[in-house]
Design a protein that fits this description.
Radius of gyration: 42 Å
Number of domains: 5
Helix content: 10-25%
Largest sheet: 8 strands, antiparallel
Structural class: alpha+beta
Distance between the termini: 47 Å
Strand content: 35-45%
CATH superfamily of the largest domain: RNA polymerase II/Efflux pump adaptor protein, barrel-sandwich hybrid domain
CATH topology of the largest domain: OB fold (Dihydrolipoamide Acetyltransferase, E2P)
CATH class of the largest domain: Mainly Beta
Oligomer: single chain
Length: about 425
């Protein structure tokens, strides 16, 4: 019974309190903060350490809710102790040459410019494959046999030549001999002139040295070969194209003729290998965000294999107009205002840095610098506008400075005009 009476009394007291608050004028319930104290200062807020209260002016210096003394908060102003706790570090903005080392990855492949076809000039059926015609990648010498063909057409031509010689028809014999020469079979015609017996099989030899590459598949025993059909292709085994994929951020630094230092996964550093940029794709790969780049190299020592994974280092530079410059000619380099990438805060569409602007009652003060950026220089980035040589910017703790400004309602990365204050 006593418990129920206590609950009833508490409920009545709560109702009476709510009614009193509802009937009390707002001017009596809350104290108005005016500009009787310090007026409004840009980037300065006054906060209550107890209540969730923030004001742009000091007023009478007390919190209108709890009466505690308001604390002065300056967006971007940090004491030595605050900078130490926040890990804030700064650097002086300077002009640097736009020189970087581009790192790119790719593969080595046969230099297609050296590709030549071995063609069977006479029709026939493959009856034998020699070692040079059995495997892609085989190294063959000039005049090395590739395949043997059974050729009725060849047999008939030999019979015609033998008949022309026997009849004394020199004009016809000369014409038939020319046909054999066109077939690259001059030796067969000479054998007939010497009185040897005709043969129905001919050996197709490689007219030049190289490494075997295949158009489709290698001819097999039993395959019918049409006249003037390529049997296989040969490439120079010592000449390669290194196909690199350069990241988009560094693609603008490259130009034809630049030297490159190469290394492969299987052979390591390819010291002494002369490699230069020969071709640059005019477009970017939209999926990988890279620019295809070709280097033409000669490697006679066998350290580079077709299909090998290759890494490349290219020293590159930009001129004063941000166009690729000669990395070996320092006079052609441009110099640009640049900051460490850690100094830049970005939303993807907006870039800022926090620049030291002076002292505020013993605290170092920072202000937003709106940036227009240029190309990256490794761990630095070119600043086209927003900073000048000699400015001091935060390189560590910049995000915490920005967070403090946001809490104070001052302009920040996400709120260019400042967050609304209660």
């Amino acid at each position: 019974m006593l418990r129920h009476r206590t609950l009833i009394i508490a409920a009545l007291a709560a109702l009476a309190g709510a009614a009193a608050i509802a009937l009390t004028p707002a001017t009596r319930l809350f104290v108005r903060v005016d500009d009787g104290g310090e007026g409004r200062e840009p980037g300065v807020r006054w906060a209550c350490a107890m209540m969730d209260y923030l004001a742009e002016t000091r007023g009478d210096g007390r919190c209108p809710v709890c009466g505690m003394t308001l604390e002065r908060i300056v967006a971007g102003a940090l004491s030595d102790e605050q900078r130490r706790r926040m890990g804030v570090a700064t650097t002086v903005v300077e002009a640097v040459p736009a020189v970087i080392t581009v790192h790119a990855y790719g593969t080595a492949r046969a230099d297609e410019r050296t590709r030549r076809a071995v063609v069977a000039r006479v029709a026939g059926r493959v009856v034998r494959r020699h070692p040079g015609g059995q495997h892609a990648g085989a190294i063959v010498a000039a005049d090395e046999p590739l395949v043997d063909l059974y050729s009725p057409a060849l047999l008939g031509a030999q019979a015609e030549l033998a008949a022309a010689i026997a009849s004394g028809d020199d004009q016809l014999a000369a014409a038939l001999t020319t046909r054999f020469a066109r077939w690259n079979l001059a030796g067969v015609a000479e054998a007939i002139r010497r009185g040897e017996q005709p043969t129905d099989t001919v050996t197709i030899v490689s007219p030049f040295a190289g490494r075997v590459v295949v158009n489709g598949v290698l001819p097999a025993v039993g395959d019918e070969i049409a006249a003037d059909r390529p049997l296989l292709d040969l490439v120079d085994p010592h000449r390669f194209i290194v196909v690199l994929h350069v990241p988009e951020a560094e693609a603008r630094f490259l130009r034809p003729g630049q030297r490159a230092a190469l290394a492969s996964d299987d052979a390591g550093d390819l010291a002494g290998l002369e490699a230069r940029v020969d071709w640059l794709s005019p477009t970017l790969d939209t999926a990988a965000r890279t620019r295809e780049t070709h280097l033409h190299v000669v490697e006679p020592s066998g350290r580079l294999l077709d299909g090998a994974l290759v890494t490349a280092r290219l020293r590159a530079a930009l001129g004063p107009d941000l166009a690729p410059a000669d990395p070996e000619d320092e006079a052609s380099w441009g110099r640009f205002v640049a900051v460490p990438r850690s100094a830049v805060l970005s939303t993807g569409t907006r870039d800022i840095a926090w620049k030291a602007t002076g002292d505020d009652r013993g605290a170092q003060r920072f202000a937003i610098a709106e940036l227009a950026l240029g190309p990256r220089l490794g761990d630095r980035v070119i600043v086209r506008s927003g900073l000048e040589i000699g400015d001091v910017v935060a390189t560590a703790g910049a995000f915490l400075i920005d967070s403090q400004a946001q809490l104070a309602g001052a302009p920040s990365l996400l709120f260019p005009d400042g967050a609304a204050t209660p």
